[in-house]
Write a structure and sequence with these properties.
The complex is a heterodimer of chains A (about 260) and B (about 400). Chain A is α/β, with parallel strands linked by helices. Chain A has a single domain (about 10-260), classed as Rossmann fold. Chain A contains 9 helices and 8 strands. Chain A has helices at about 75-90, 105-115, 150, 155-160, 170-185, 195-200, 220-230, 245-250, 250-260; strands at about 10-15, 20-25, 30-35, 55-60, 95-100, 120-125, 205-210, 235-240. In chain A, strands 1-2-4-3-5-6-7-8 form an 8-stranded mixed β-sheet, sandwiched between helices. Chain A is globular and about 45 Å long. Chain B is an alpha/beta fold and about 400 residues long. The radius of gyration of chain B is 20 Å and the shape is globular. The two termini of chain B are about 15 Å apart. In chain B, about 50% of the residues are buried. Classes of the chains: A alpha/beta (about 260), B alpha/beta (about 400). The interface of A and B includes residues 72, 144 and 185 of A.
């Protein structure tokens, strides 16, 4: 796995959870803010730097993604919830703000419906996983891998620096393929979480939905779907931003910070 | 060489492609099925079944069918149906279904269907357990990420169903059987001969060795086939199995004509169609996520440009098992390769790509008349010499 450069102020720690080596990045002081990243971490976490001014930002890398170990036995979202119960115990984290992006948004929603008393405030940024009427929106596997980067953003320059110069770079291709395998274990047979809507009413903590208005991967219409099940959730959308709304719009990063403060 | 065996393998392609088909990146998975005309399908099925039946008449020992989905490459989405259709018309030749990926079907049902075919043919069935190409996982509702685990469990269930008196139980990771008790049971004891067919993943070769099954590599280069053959022999020995010559069929694209020039002239356009069109697909369809190990993916990606570049017969001829020429040349070529691989079992791809019926008939007839008898005679002479 090619190493990903993270901002200097983030401390990198390794934790072995249930025999699985995972990496936790953390920086800043204040109330803990846990960020669940999406299906790819290759575009880095530069956007999270401003949050470290006010919060103790904790970004664990999900098993099977980035530099975290693979565990072929983790085949459903609940396995990730259980993984994070163990990891949060190891970190001594009790209550915290939880921000989840894309796949991490789905993971955060799953964690929060089960362990809501530990989540002070919840932010879901372009969360994946709900099945809408329009099809086939947000089925990651329908996208040709070479097109994924350009579908992630409104402005390609934002992620260009994280991509290899050669589009056929074997190392990059291999890393993404391995992550695709992790996603296939979780999502191939059931790309949507059909049970989650039944439990979303348990999200009684203050909840914010953030979406890029130009999201080509999971259109902003998906926000209505989430709000149907979490009517009290606030929604903020951002013009000129795609799926990676936090990477593209500093205003979105500030909006999250403002909501959590 | 011990008693030789000749199989005729058919792919049953749908050949009436639209003029604009080159504009499609793949003839698999997402190639629109509006281009399938069932009326033309009627004629093709009639013709292809007749070719399988002809193979026995001209001297082949077995016919081989296999399974693919969502593709013009093959009209055999359900090869057991083809097997059932030819059983009453093929008198003594073996019927090889090589085969249905066991993880894409309920294993008890596959055990039942194969047992039915074995009984219906009075013990002439042979089966293979492929994992299925990457393309099959885009067409079926089964995850490529745990395909191998499900595949392994499915084979376990089928073998249990065939070898243990039922009812038995099976409590697996994927399937639960409270009463595994399929009727009918196979005619052959303990069960029909089994093979693993694969495109060369080390894991599948290892599985064949462990189970004592035959192994057939499809669409791998000559060099790779040799490596796989050695791996199979090594691993089989470690598992206490001696690989028998008939367990390692040699798959050869074969075409015979009066002269070398004529053979090439008649066969090359169809070999070209086979590699350039019938096999045309995308790297993503070939390797859905989780289907290959990362190491294997990188290996194949590095090779991809060489294999899927512009068609060049000399390259194909050089890289793959291709025997195109006069009967003399084909006999010599097949014997040389068989000696090198240590097999007496030839699986001939003699209906190549979009080859018209007359060429298939000509090819099968010439193979039956001038190739099969001579290789048999040479092998028999060799056996006599060995016995003396």
């Amino acid at each position: 796995m090619a190493a990903i450069a993270f901002p200097d102020q983030f401390k990198r720690e390794t934790h072995t959870i249930n025999g699985l080596k995972t990496t936790v990045l953390s920086a800043g002081k204040g109330e803990p803010l846990v960020f669940f990243h999406g299906a790819g971490i290759w575009h880095g976490i530069n956007f999270a730097v401003p949050w470290t001014q006010k919060f103790r930002v904790i970004i664990p890398l999900h098993p099977g993604l980035g530099e975290a170990d693979d565990d072929p036995a983790m085949t459903e979202m609940h396995d990730y919830v259980m993984h994070y119960l163990d990891l949060f115990d190891a970190l001594g984290l009790d209550k915290f703000h939880l921000v989840g992006f894309s796949l991490g948004g789905l993971m955060a929603a799953n964690f929060a419906v089960e362990h809501g008393h530990r989540v002070l405030r919840l932010v879901l940024v372009g969360p994946a996983g709900l099945r809408g009427k329009e099809r086939p929106k947000g089925d990651f596997f329908l996208l040709p891998p070479e097109k994924i980067p350009s579908l992630l953003v409104s402005n390609f320059d934002v992620i260009k620096q994280f991509l290899p110069e050669d589009p056929k770079d074997l190392e990059f291709m291999g890393d993404r393929y391995r992550e695709g395998g992790t996603l296939a274990r979780l999502l191939w047979e059931h790309p949507y979480d059909i049970k989650l809507p039944r439990y979303l009413h348990r999200l009684t903590m203050p909840t914010l939905l953030v979406w890029g208005e130009d999201d080509k991967l999971l259109s902003v219409q998906n926000a209505d779907l989430w709000r149907q099940y979490i009517p009290k959730a606030q929604l903020q959308t951002f013009k000129g931003a795609g799926h990676l709304v936090l990477d593209e719009k500093r205003e979105a990063v500030d909006a999250v910070q403002h909501f959590l403060s | 060489m011990s008693a030789v065996r000749f199989d005729f393998m058919h792919f049953m392609p749908y050949t009436h492609l639209p003029e604009n088909h080159k504009g499609y990146h793949s003839l698999w998975v997402d190639f629109p099925n509006k281009y399938y005309d069932p009326k033309k399908g009627v004629e093709l099925y009639k013709r292809y079944l007749a070719e399988l039946i002809l193979a026995e008449k001209v001297g082949f020992d077995a016919v081989v069918v296999n399974e693919h989905h969502n593709t013009a490459y093959s009209m055999m989405a359900a090869p057991n149906l083809i097997a059932a259709a030819i059983i009453p018309q093929i008198k003594t030749a073996k019927i090889c279904v090589w085969g249905t990926p066991p993880n894409l079907e309920y294993p008890n049902r596959l055990a039942e269907e194969y047992a039915m075919l074995d009984v219906m043919s009075e013990g002439r069935l042979e089966v293979a357990f492929p994992l299925g190409t990457g393309m099959e996982y885009w067409a079926n509702p089964i995850s490529p990420a745990n395909a191998r685990a499900r595949y392994r469990e499915s084979i376990d269930i089928i073998l249990q169903a065939w070898t243990q008196d039922g009812p038995t139980t099976y409590y697996g990771d994927f399937y639960t059987y409270r009463y595994l008790n399929p009727w009918p049971r196979p005619y052959q004891k303990p069960h029909p001969p089994c093979y693993i067919v694969g495109t060369g993943s080390p894991e599948t070769v290892e599985l064949a060795a462990k189970l004592g099954f035959g192994y057939s590599a499809v669409f791998v280069t000559k060099q790779r086939a040799q490596e796989l053959n050695q791996q199979l022999r090594r691993s089989s020995a470690e598992h206490g199995h001696q690989v028998r010559p008939e367990q390692v069929p040699l798959q050869v694209i074969t075409y015979v004509a009066e002269t070398k020039e004529k053979a090439e002239e008649e066969a090359i356009p169809h070999i070209r169609f086979f590699f350039e069109d019938a096999l045309r697909t995308t790297p993503t369809f070939l390797a859905p996520p989780g289907y290959l190990s990362v190491t294997e993916l990188k290996k194949r990606a590095a090779l991809a440009d060489k294999l899927h570049g512009a068609f060049n017969f000399d390259n194909v001829n050089e890289s793959f098992f291709v025997a195109v020429g006069t009967a003399d040349q084909v006999v010599a070529q097949l014997e040389e390769w068989a000696g090198r691989v240590g097999t007496n079992h030839f699986n001939l791809l003699a209906a190549i790509g979009d080859m018209p019926h007359w060429k298939v008939v000509k090819n099968l007839s010439l193979i039956g008349q001038d190739v099969i008898p001579r290789i048999r005679a040479n092998a028999a002479a060799e056996r006599r010499v060995a016995a003396e």
